[in-house]
Amino acid sequence: MTTRKTTARKPLPKKCPDCKGTGEITETVRVGSARKPRETADRQAALCLTCFGTGDAPTD
Ligand SMILES: [Zn+2]
Q1: Residue 30 CA to ligand 1 centre (angstroms)
Q2: Which residues constitute the domain of residue 46?
Q3: How far is the CA of 43 from the centre of ligand 1 (A)?
Q4: How far, in Å, is the centroid of ligand 1 from the Cα of 25?
Q5: How many domains does the chain contain in total?
């Protein structure tokens, strides 16, 4: 019988709620005037400003 080593896992840091731990968010691309913005189907990846791309939930 082989003894399986259990990998010691570090407790994961809390994931950023905004980007869900990815560090990236997708923004809706808007076109048109500021008075009448129109959302397009396009999404662009952007750096999550909540965690600054780390994916970790900010601590206070
Ligand atoms: Zn984030």
Answers
A1: 21
A2: 13-55
A3: 17
A4: 7
A5: 1
Residue 37 lies in a domain: yes
Residue at 6 is within a domain: no
Task: Decide if 38 is inside a domain.
Answer: yes
Supply angle C-alpha 13, 15, 21, rounded to 5.
120
- Residues lining ion ligand 1 (Cβ < 5 A) are 16, 18-19, 48, 50-51
Print pLDDT tens along the chain (60 aa). 777 777 787 777 799 999 999 999 988 888 888 888 888 888 888 999 999 999 999 877
* 22, 53 contact by CB (below 8 A): no
Helix locations, the chain, DSSP H:
none
